[in-house]
Specification:
- With 136 residues, the chain is α+β, with helices and mostly antiparallel strands.
- The strands form three sheets. Strands 2-3-4-9 form a four-stranded antiparallel sheet, with no helix packed on it.
- Strand 3 (60-64) and strand 4 form a beta hairpin.
- It has two domains: 1-35; 42-135, Rieske Iron-sulfur Protein.
- The protein has one helix at residues 2-33, and strands at 42-45, 54-56, 60-64, 69-73, 84-86, 91-93, 100-101, 107-109, 118-119, 121-123, 132-135.
Length: 136
């Protein structure tokens, strides 16, 4: 009977040591998998826009209508080509493979399978502040 008790206690201590090691290593494993979120890059557009205006940047289009101002990525979701704006058709068109998107970034046609990302836009505030801030 005492031999069985020793085996039971030895196995119990092994399980307790394993649980303690896991509890101590858990924060380390969480730290290793931790990723720092990327800070948004702020782009100032120092221009007041009228209804129907379009501002063209290297990385985004800025649109303004009666109800809102919004920014759409200028990078095609298919292969990363830089999109052009067609005033005639009022569409964003990829010169590489002719993917087409609405001004809200919704895919209309082409090999692209995803919509364009939208970026948050804030109107600058203050007495002399004229323009918008786009968060990329």
């Amino acid at each position: 009977m005492t031999e069985e008790r020793r085996i039971f206690l030895r196995n119990g201590w092994d399980w307790i040591r394993l649980a303690a090691t896991a509890a101590l290593c858990y924060p380390l494993f969480r730290f290793v998998k931790f990723k720092v979120p990327k800070k948004p890059r702020l782009v100032k557009v120092e221009k007041l826009m009228k209804v129907g205006d379009v501002y063209l940047d290297q990385e985004f289009f800025l649109f303004h209508d009666e109800s809102a101002t919004w920014a759409v990525s200028r990078i095609c979701t298919h292969l990363g080509c830089r999109l052009n704006f067609s005033e005639k058709e009022h569409l964003l068109i990829c010169p590489c493979h002719q993917s087409m998107f609405t001004t809200k970034g919704v895919m209309v046609a082409g090999p692209a399978k995803r919509n364009l990302p939208l970026f948050p836009v804030e109107k600058m505030s203050g007495e002399n502040a004229k323009g918008y801030i786009v968060s990329l």
